[in-house]
């Protein structure tokens, strides 16, 4: 697999961002025991992403090519935000499912099932985008899941296992909830990739850029997080510099995810985030006295081997039969005609 320079940069920065976010959160919550509300952190991350995207759109001045003001252009973006509204509500449902599952199963079980997001992403990539996988890449994805489970599970504290020792029915509901979250995560990743890349656009539909889509997603996500804050017990307390840094990293990560699926794809994005698990585990061991057991070392090896297998496998991927273009599908029409591309 040959990577373009922009793919290398985006995926590397995404890997570093994910590792930095994990380490900072582990230090802030696990070592310092900071008590700021996590939903407030997510709210601020979306707000930061919104402001950064608006600033980038304004700086590019592409809206002037259409002969409209910045305000009118943003209004047009909001009116075309139905697709991102669907994605925002999927994310909201995933948050609810996380709460339901963690209230009924222990953290180790949750973490193990959650690693299956890699496979669900591959499944929906095949189902929705008709992406083909050869045997080597399929083996690599399964190895990636196994490696991620081995790396993450030993670092999960079992202090809450007794509290989560619910009835069999409660555990079944918890496992079903996290399994549904896994499926939604895979679907959301591929849905987002399809929207970002403009697949399936029909006549008259605007082709929006990454920052426009992030504005839409943030506008629909902010109300959900605000409602969650209102129902929290420790709202608007315990904030410090580390919480603000987490919010900034989280907001930047949202833009990096969009860039990674735009210039690469959701599977490569998953490889980058899995690589960040390895990096954060090793750095956590060196800097934060985190665990590094023999089992975790095996997991690190599996993850690295899986990334290598998937990205450098020379075996040709089977190509699907060429499909005829549907009569009602035409080339996407850009929202703003432009002779230049935005620099990333």
Automatic annotation (TrEMBL):
Keywords, alphabetical: Membrane, Signal, Transmembrane, Transmembrane helix
InterPro entries xref list: EmrE-like, Nuc_sug_transpt
Main localization category: membrane
Membrane topology field: Multi-pass membrane protein
Annotated Pfam families: Nuc_sug_transp
Domain of life: Eukaryota
Protein name: Nucleotide-sugar transporter
Source organism of the structure: Triparma laevis f. longispina
């Amino acid at each position: 697999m040959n990577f373009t320079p922009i793919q290398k940069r985006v995926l590397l920065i995404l890997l570093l961002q994910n590792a930095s976010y994990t380490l900072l959160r582990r230090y802030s919550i696990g070592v310092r025991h900071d008590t700021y509300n996590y939903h407030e952190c997510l709210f601020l991350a979306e707000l930061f992403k919104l402001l950064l995207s608006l600033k980038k759109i304004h700086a590019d001045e592409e809206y002037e090519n259409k002969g409209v003001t910045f305000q009118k252009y943003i209004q047009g973006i909001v009116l075309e935000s139905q697709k991102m509204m669907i994605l925002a509500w999927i994310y909201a449902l995933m948050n609810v499912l996380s709460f339901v599952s963690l209230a009924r199963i222990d953290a180790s079980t949750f973490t193990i099932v959650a690693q299956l997001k890699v496979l669900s992403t591959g499944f929906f990539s095949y189902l929705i985008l008709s992406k083909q996988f050869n045997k080597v890449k399929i083996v690599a994805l399964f190895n990636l899941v196994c490696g991620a489970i081995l790396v993450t599970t030993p670092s999960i504290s079992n202090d809450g296992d007794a509290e989560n020792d619910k009835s069999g029915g409660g555990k079944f509901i918890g496992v079903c909830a996290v399994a549904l979250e896994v499926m939604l995560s895979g679907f959301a990743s591929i849905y987002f990739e399809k929207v970002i890349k403009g697949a399936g656009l029909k006549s008259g539909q605007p082709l929006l850029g990454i920052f426009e889509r992030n504005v839409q997603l943030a506008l629909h996500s902010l109300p959900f997080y605000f409602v969650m804050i209102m129902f929290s017990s420790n709202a608007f307390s315990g904030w410090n510099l580390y919480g603000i840094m987490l919010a900034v990293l989280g907001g930047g990560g949202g833009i990096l995810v969009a860039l990674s699926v735009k210039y690469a794809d959701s599977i490569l994005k998953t490889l980058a985030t899995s690589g960040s698990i390895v990096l954060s585990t090793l750095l956590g061991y060196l800097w934060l006295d985190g665990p590094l057991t023999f089992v975790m070392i095996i997991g690190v090896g599996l993850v690295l081997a899986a990334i290598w297998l998937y990205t450098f496998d020379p075996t040709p991927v089977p190509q699907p039969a060429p499909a005829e273009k549907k009569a009602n599908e035409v080339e996407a029409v850009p929202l703003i005609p432009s002779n230049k591309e935005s620099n990333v």
